[in-house]
Amino acid sequence: MASVYRALDTALGRTVAVKLFRADGSASEPERQSGEIALLASLNHFALVTLFDAGTALVDGVPRTFIVMELVDGPDLRTRIEGGPLPSLDVAVMGADLAEALHYVHEQGIIHRDVKPANVLLAPSGFPGRNMHAKLADFGIARLLDETRLTATGSLLGTASYLSPEQALGGVIGAPTDVYSLGLVLLECLTGVRAYPGTAVESAMARLQRQPEIPSKLGRDWTTVLRAMTARDFADRPTAADAAGLLRALATGSSNLDAPTMLLPAEAPTATVLLPAAAPDPTLLLPAAAGADAPTELLKTDAPASTPAASIRASISPRKPSRPANPSRPVRRRVLLMVASGLTLIAVAVAALLLLNPAEAPTAVPPSYPAVDGTLGTHLQELQESVNP
Q1: Annotation says 60 is catalytic
Q2: What is this structure's pTM?
Q3: φ and ψ at 348, to 5 degrees?
Q4: Of 97, 114, 138, 221, which residue is the catalytic one?
Q5: Residue 216, φ and ψ in degrees, nearest 5
Q6: At what angle do helices 328-356 and 374-387 cross, to 10 degrees?
Q7: pLDDT tens digit string along 15-30?
Q8: What number of other Cβ atoms are within 10 A of residue 146's Cβ?
C-alpha cells in the first residue's frame, strides 16, 4: 500500500521519513489515505510517530499521496524479535509506553486496529538504564469509533497473527481490540515465537478455539497481566490505561520480573509502647522513729489498689485534717521523737561499753549534759538517772 523512504528536509536541514502511497485504482484508497493523514495530524504523544507534512506529488506522471514524518533511527520490533526474546524489563517499559500511547489514541476516539511488531519502531534511548524507546506507527487502517467502516462486509483488516477474536469474527471492535493485539505482541517479545502461527486462516481461527499459551517460566506477574490483556471476552480485558499501569508496575524498581517482589519494611527495633502509669497504692509517709539509717516504712491505707489515674495526684498530696488542730503539735512531737531517738542510741552505746569493760565501770565518770529547761529537760534528767542510778 505504501513505501517508506529516508529523506532530507531541505527547508529545515533535518532527516525525515517519507511515506509514499502507491497508486491504487481502489475507490476507497484515496479516502483511506486522507483519513490517515487527518488522524496523524490530530495526534501528539511521545510514543507516537510525529507527522510533519503531507500532500500530493506527481511521480512518473501519476498523482501520489505522501506524508512526511519524524525519522525513527532504529529497527522495528519485528527485526528485534528475530534476534531472540527481549529482556523482561525492556518489554515491560516498552509495553507501558505503547499502552499509554493507545490510551491517548483511544481518548481521541481512534482505534489503531493493526498493532503488531512491524508497526513498532525502536529508537535509541538517551535515558540511563533504558536500551530503547518505542514508537507506534502506521495508522493506515485506523478509524474513528463512530465512523462508517471502510471495509466490505465479511472482510478483515489487520494482520492475522495479531487479530483479536472480534476482528477474526468480523464483529464490533473497540479500544479492547488494540489491548488484545498489544498483549500478543508483548508475549512474542518475551518468548520469541508467535502465539498463533500458521496461515492467515489458521491463525485467525486458532484464537477462537484456545487461549494463547503463556509459559509459566515468565512468572506469575507476567502471566496475570498477559492473561488479562488477551482475554477472549471483549469486556474482560483491561483498558489501555489499566494495562499501562500494570506494565509500569512490572518495570518500576524491579530487575527480576520472574518472581513477585514483596517490599518489606527495614528491620527496626521493637517499637516502644507507652502504657498508662500504674497508680501506686495511696500511702502515708510516717516520720522516722529509729534513726537516720532506718528504712522508711510505708503503710497502706484502706483504699483499693486500682486508684483512678485522676486521683493519683490527690493521693500523694498532704491530707487536710478533718478538724482544726494545733499546727505546733506535729512539729513539737517530731522534735521530741528525734531527741528521744538520739538519746536512746547514746544509752545503747554506753550500755555496750559497760558490758564490754565491767572492771572499769566503777571508775567511769558520768557524762555531763547541758541543762535544758521545760519538759525536754525533765526527760533528759530521767534518762540520765536511768543510765547512772
Answers
A1: no
A2: 0.62
A3: -65, -40
A4: 114
A5: -65, -20
A6: 20
A7: 999 998 887 666 567 7
A8: 6
Torsion over CA of 247, 250, 251 and 254, rounded to 10 degrees? 180
Residue 308 is predicted with a pLDDT of 43
The CATH class of the 73-146+157-252 domain is mainly alpha
Given a cut of 50, the residues of the chain with pLDDT beneath it are 148-155, 255-273, 275, 278-325, 327, 360-362
Closest to 43 in 3D by CA, of 174, 153, 138, 166: 138
What is the reported pLDDT for 382? 74
Report the candidate in 42, 32, 17, 40 with the shortest Cα–Cα distance to residue 65.
32
Write out the three cell numbers for 222.
507476567
Our measurement of the distance from residue 314's CA atom to the centroid of its chain's CA atoms, rounded to an integer in Å, reads 50
The residue type at 217: K
| Residue 210, C-alpha cell as written in the block | 484456545
- pLDDT value of residue 363: 52
Got the DSSP string for 77-141?
Answer: HHHHHHT-PPPHHHHHHHHHHHHHHHHHHHHTTEE-----GGGEEEEEP-STT--EEEEE---TT
What are the residues whose beta carbons fall under 8 Å from the beta carbon of 102, sequence distance 6 or more? Answer: 112, 115, 136, 175, 178, 179, 182, 240
